[in-house]
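Form 7-S
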Amino acid sequence: MHARTDSELTRLLIPLAGKHKYDSINARFKNTRDLSASWRIKFNSMDLTISDYLDDAPDEVLLEFCESMIMAANGKKIPPMPVYKEWVTRDRFVYEKRKLFLKRSKNLSRSEQGTTYNLIDSVNRLLDSGLIVPSDIDNSLFSWTDRPNYRKVGYCSPLVRLVAISSALDSPNVPENVLDYVVYHEILHLRQGYRPFQRSHDAQFRAMERLYPDKKECDRFLMDLKKLN
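Output:
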């Protein structure tokens, strides 16, 4: 599928305008780091902006996603999006869009090797402990950040299956088990998978997080690290 133009997207959504009683829906793609959407309603017209991650999506994927955004704009519950979700969780999509994500991310080293720690060593320790299994990290990438962040020491994009760990933890002053705990937390998001418009830190997630043996000790260390910086 070729990358659509804004005018092609707008034409595709003409049936949705009538279905949802809009005079028109003007749609456009936007370069974004994360897959996102925004809208503005003026009188009886809608301006809809969606991530260019979807500019090569099949018609049925775009229609399902855009209709869900229209429903959200009108305060309605977003329905399941099985066609959209199946397409964006394919290995090919993950691989291709991860390249875009990395290009648009300004604070990633793109390497698992730090000055003190290697993130893959941390992953292997978690595998050996049984806290994670190989399927948790299928088609995944791990990277340190270039600059340290003490408030947000880890980040995960389940969509492109990427885990980023703050270089603040790449230090001999940070215990190995603390780094492993942060990596474990982010891998749990990989295990959850891409779940648009759902809470990430729900009760099930917190229950899995509590399985980490040194959780309380690690939480205290990370809190002190934040206070000191």
